[in-house]
Request: fold
Amino acid sequence: MKKLIWLTTIIILFLVFVVPGVFALPIDMIPANDQPGYSVNEKLSLYGKRIISQKFISQEDNLSAIGISLGNPNLKNKKQITLSIYDVGDNLMRTSVINGQNLEDGDFVKFVFPQIPDSKNKDYRFTIVTPEAGAEEVIYIYHTQSILSWMEWAKFTDGIEKEVEGGLPFVAFHTPKSKLEVIRTVYSRFLPSYFQKP
Reply:
């Protein structure tokens, strides 16, 4: 009986402490934040010359992707959707393009680009456009007032730039410097939530 208890204990400890580290090894990008909550009713329609922009401060080095939920009602948008990142001097740093035909309505989409080294604590702005889309091929960008302290309220341009009542519920991703950083991040987020009382 004691052997069975010891074996069960060892298996549980293995599952809790070792397996997450093994599964973490293939991870090539780490989120800097959880996605802020949002309502699908708070949205802006994007097509043609309309532009949505969002300022933020990068929380980590090697910024390498921006993830955001997009609406593609009735899957009508099959045009290119472009995310561009600018530095504080408004210099274009990176561009990432996806095609709307691969976008399901409400999908969380990652715009991946070559990593920006030394990006930690630096100001950036990203824009999202779909210039080839007509009014019938609109995509929706959601916004929320539940933004984090390092995000600003977004701006929407439709001929005239205006401030949106809230920011975009996006996630910034960065490329870890080593696999050790990946494993450390996974354990630092996993273990506290595992042992937290319900």
Q: What stands out?
A: The mean pLDDT is 84. The longest helix spans residues 179-195. The longest strand covers residues 107-116. The radius of gyration is 20 Å.
